[in-house]
Specification:
Distance between the termini: 45 Å
Number of helices: 15
Structural class: alpha+beta
Number of strands: 12
Helix content: 40-55%
Mean pLDDT: 88
Oligomer: single chain
C-alpha cells in the first residue's frame, strides 16, 4: 500500500509527466514535467480557477517544490500554451498505469461483484459550454435565433460497487468533433471508441457494463458480448429494446387471462401467433417478493409515526428477444417494483435487460448492480461538480487539446483522492475528523500556503492533530 500513498503518487506522476513528448526546444524554460504537474497540482489543491492558482504560486512555491516536485512553476499563459499541445493519450496512459498500481496492490479485488466481474458504469458528462469561445474540436449547436453554442463533453467508464462510496474512473473518451466529419460526434459513437479503449488497455479484466436506455441496441450489445462481457441496461417503452417490454406485458396478460378464465381455450397471442396456450412454448415470468422494514429514521416513517413496511417485488423472465430487427439476440428481463405495504402505492420501479440468466438467487444482486449505475452520477460527476473540483468551470479552452486535457487532469486528481479514501488511513482519519470534503480541501490549501511541510501526509496529520509552535517569526527585510 505504501506506493499508493499520496506523496509517493505525486512523485510518480512528476516522473511520468517528465517523459511526455515535448515538441518545444530542449532548452525551454519550463520543463514539460513541471507544466503538467502544475496542472495536476491545481486540481489536487482544488483551486477554483487557473488565476487563483497562479496568484498563489509565490506563497506556495516551497511546498510546490517539496510536495509536488515542481522546480519551475509556469505562469498561467505558459501552462495553457504547453498543455494545449500535449496529446491527451499521454495523460490517459498515466491514469491507466495508476489503475495497474491499484490492481497490483490488491485493492481492485474489493470491487469484484459477480465472480470474476467488475461493475463498469457508463455515462456522459458535459464540461464546457460557450457562445463565444470555440476550437476545431468543439461540438456546435445552432439555435433558432441564429446563435451557436460550442461545447465539449466526455463519456466516462467508472468501476463501481453497490456497497462502496469510492469509485475508480477507468477510461474516458472525449465527445468532440472528429477529423474529417461534417456532423457532430455523439455519445453512441464515443461509446464504440470507449469500448475499444477498455478492451485494449484492460484485457485481463471482465466487466458487467451498466448503462442507460440509449445503449439498448443490437450492434452495441453484440459488441459487448463479443468480448465475453456482461451487461445490465435500462429499458423504456419506445426505446431500442421497447419490444422486450411488449413481450413481457403480453406474457403477463396471458397469465392474467389464464387466471381469470380457466374454462376457456386459453388463447394467447405472442409474436403474431394465436393458438392454445398448451401448444405455445413461451418464456415464463417468475416472481420474487420480499417484505422489509425501512431503517428507523424520520424520513422512513409514515404519517402515523410507524416505520414503513415495503414490499420489493422482482418479476423476471429469461429468453426474450431484443427487438424485431435482432431476434437473434436473446435477453433476460427484470422488472423491479417497490410498494408501500400499507397503501399499495408504488414507490419505485425500474426495468432492465441483461445477459445474466436470472434466478431467484441472483435477482436481488442484479437489481443492486443495475441501480449502482447512479454512482457514476452521484459519486463521480456530482462530486466533481459540487465538492471542490469545479468540473464545469472553464480553466482554459485553447485551440487543440487544452479543454480535454484539463478535464483529464482533474479526473486524475480525483482518482488519486479516491485511492487515498480507499487505502490511506491518515487521509481517512482526516476526512472523518472534518466530516466534509469541502472543509478538508479548505484546510489543505490553508496549511499549504502558510506553513512549510515536507509531505502531504504531514498536512493531513496537522489537520487532525493541529500544529504547535512556540513563536512565529516574520521576515520584514
Amino acid at each position: 500500500m505504501e506506493n499508493l500513498k499520496i506523496d509517493k503518487l505525486l512523485s510518480w506522476t512528476k516522473e511520468e509527466f517528465s517523459r511526455f513528448r515535448d515538441k518545444r526546444a530542449s532548452n525551454s524554460q519550463y520543463p514539460i514535467g513541471d507544466v503538467v504537474q502544475s496542472g495536476l497540482a491545481m486540481f489536487s489543491l482544488k483551486d477554483s480557477s487557473l488565476l487563483e492558482y497562479n496568484n498563489r504560486v509565490a506563497q506556495r512555491l516551497p511546498n510546490l517544490n517539496r510536495i509536488y516536485k515542481i522546480e519551475n512553476c509556469p505562469p498561467d499563459s505558459q501552462m495553457r500554451r504547453v498543455l494545449d499541445k500535449v496529446g491527451s493519450i499521454q495523460i490517459e496512459r498515466v491514469k491507466r498505469k495508476l489503475i495497474y498500481k491499484v490492481k497490483e496492490a490488491g485493492l481492485l479485488e474489493e470491487f469484484q461483484y459477480f465472480k470474476g466481474y467488475y461493475l463498469l458504469a457508463i455515462d456522459g458528462v458535459h464540461h464546457f459550454s460557450s457562445k463565444e469561445v470555440s476550437c476545431s474540436n468543439c461540438l456546435h449547436r445552432t439555435h433558432e435565433d441564429g446563435s451557436t453554442t460550442y461545447s465539449h463533453s466526455m463519456l466516462a467508464a467508472v468501476i463501481v460497487h453497490p456497497s462502496k462510496r469510492v469509485v475508480l474512473p477507468l477510461c474516458e473518451e472525449a465527445i468532440v468533433h472528429q477529423d474529417g466529419e461534417t456532423k457532430n460526434d455523439c455519445e453512441l459513437n464515443a461509446s464504440k471508441r470507449l469500448l475499444e479503449k477498455v478492451r485494449t488497455r484492460h484485457m485481463d479484466l471482465k466487466f458487467i457494463r451498466v448503462e442507460d436506455a440509449l445503449y439498448a441496441n443490437g450492434p452495441h450489445i453484440k459488441s459487448i458480448q463479443e468480448n465475453g462481457d456482461k451487461y445490465i441496461i435500462t429499458v423504456k417503452p419506445g426505446s431500442g429494446a421497447g419490444s422486450v417490454i411488449e413481450q413481457y406485458e403480453a406474457l403477463k396478460a396471458g397469465i392474467e387471462k389464464e387466471k381469470k378464465s380457466p374454462e376457456d381455450h386459453k388463447l394467447f397471442k405472442l409474436h403474431g401467433i394465436k393458438k392454445p396456450m398448451s401448444q405455445v412454448v413461451t418464456p415464463q415470468i417468475e416472481k420474487l417478493e420480499i417484505e422489509i422494514n425501512l431503517s428507523n429514521n424520520n424520513s422512513s416513517k409514515n404519517k402515523k409515526g410507524k416505520n414503513k413496511e415495503v414490499i420489493k417485488a422482482y418479476y423476471y423472465v429469461n429468453g426474450l428477444y431484443l427487438n424485431e430487427s435482432h431476434k437473434d439476440i436473446k435477453v433476460h428481463f427484470l422488472h423491479y417494483i417497490e410498494r408501500c405495504k400499507e397503501t399499495g402505492k408504488i414507490l419505485k420501479q425500474f426495468q432492465w435487460i441483461t445477459n445474466i440468466e436470472l434466478t431467484a438467487q441472483n435477482v436481488q444482486k442484479v437489481e443492486k448492480a443495475a441501480r449502482a449505475r447512479w454512482k457514476i452520477e452521484n459519486e463521480t460527476f456530482n462530486t466533481l461538480k459540487n465538492q471542490g473540483y469545479n468540473f464545469e468551470h472553464n480553466y482554459g479552452h485553447g485551440e487543440e487539446n487544452l479543454c480535454t486535457n484539463f478535464a483529464l487532469l482533474m479526473i486524475l486528481a480525483f482518482l488519486i483522492d479516491q485511492i487515498q479514501q480507499l487505502s490511506n488511513e491518515v487521509f481517512q482519519q482526516t476526512l472523518e475528523h472534518l466530516k466534509w470534503k469541502k472543509y478538508l480541501w479548505e484546510d489543505i490549501r490553508s496549511f499549504f500556503r502558510t506553513l512549510p511541510f515536507g509531505s502531504m501526509e504531514h498536512i493531513y496529520k496537522a489537520i487532525v492533530h493541529g500544529v504547535q509552535a512556540d513563536y512565529l517569526s516574520f521576515d520584514t527585510s
